[in-house]
Structures are given as C-alpha cells and as structure tokens.
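Entry for the shared binder. Reason: the reviewer on the internal report wants the predicted structure included alongside the sequence.
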Amino acid sequence: MSLGSIFDIAGSGMTAQQLRLNTTASNIANAETASSSVDQTYRARKPVFAAIQEQMLNPDQRGHFAFGETPGAGVAVQGIVESQQDLQMRYEPHHPAANEDGYVFYPNVNVVEEMADMMSSSRSFQMNVDVMNAAKSMMQRVLTLGQQ
C-alpha cells in the first residue's frame, strides 16, 4: 500500500460518512410527518457499508500481512435500506391525516438514536480529514528531505 492510496481510502470514508449524515438528516427531518396509512408513512433509512479489499483492486500483488489477511482499501456503499421496525400509531381523531378509525401513523424514527448517529458520522468524517492532513504533512516532509 502506497502513501498515495491513503487519500483514496480516507476519501471513500468521507464519502460514506457524508451519505450517512445525509440519511440521518433526512430521518430527523421526517420524524414527525403524519400519514393516514401504513404504506404512505416515511420509514427510517440506514446506509449499508462494506469494506473494499486491496486484493480486489490489485489481484497480482501480495500483501505483507500474515495468514492471508488482506488490507482494506476503503469503504463502498452497498445501498440504503428502510427500517422494518413498527411504525408509531397514535389515536388522534381530530388530526387531518387521521384514518377512519382516528389513528395517525408516524415514522419509526428514534430522534435520540439519529442524533447519536449524526455525532458518530461527523466524528468519523473529521477523523478521515485528520488522516488526510497527516498524510499530506508526511508527503511534504518527504519532499524536503533532500534539500539539506
């Protein structure tokens, strides 16, 4: 793994965390949207990530890892899935979106959980920024080695 590939790895992590942050923001924005039916109610969405293995990118190279371990080469977004948890059903007969039985359906979004996800994704994003800055600093130092 070269020093230059660090930027690709950290960049893929930043892209993944940005998507996670966007889906979290969407979940929070729709946390209190009401609907009269189960089919039309917003459901919480979560991104699914997978590690990209270095061996997949460079099949001819052998790593320096023991017992067949392969280094990661970044993060890939597999997709976004909807939560299968039960929706919130509240009895509000005077609500404009109430069904014929007087119930209103609300999304299965837990705002506290979403805030924790938001904090986690923003910290992960910042860690990837720090990795990029450290790699950039190391590359600049390498360039100045021969000047003395």
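Summary line for the report: The chain has a mean pLDDT of 86.
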